[in-house]
Design goal:
Blueprint (H helix, E strand, L loop, with lengths): L1 H19 L10 E8 L4 E9 L2 E7 L6 H18 L12 H17 L2
Antiparallel strand pairs: 1-2, 2-3
Protein name: FMN-binding domain-containing protein
InterPro entries: FMN-bd (IPR007329)
Pfam family, one: FMN_bind
Length: 115
Amino acid sequence: MKNKFLAGIVTTVMVLTLTACGGSKSAFKDGEYKSTTKGHNGDLTVTVQVTDGKIKDIQVGDHKETDGIFDGVKDNLIPEIIKKQSTEGIDTITGATVSSKAVLTAVNDALSQAK
């Protein structure tokens, strides 16, 4: 009798947990979202591609950032955002702090359009 009661409680808790977490609900609406913000040397445009409710790609379009310095942002920061599916907790790239913050700001703005 105790085992059935305990199994019932465990099942109820699991169902409530999945429901509270949203189950398989997508985080973002599918589409392509653009945002432009101020970088270190001028405006910087980011395009975020959302597919199946997830960030699939982030492209930096027009920008005036220094290429060698900005490479760290493109090669490290952007893949980390895609991996985490968020900008939360992502550190800026040393030596490219302003550019990193600009990309994070633009991505956040684009994702706000996708909610």
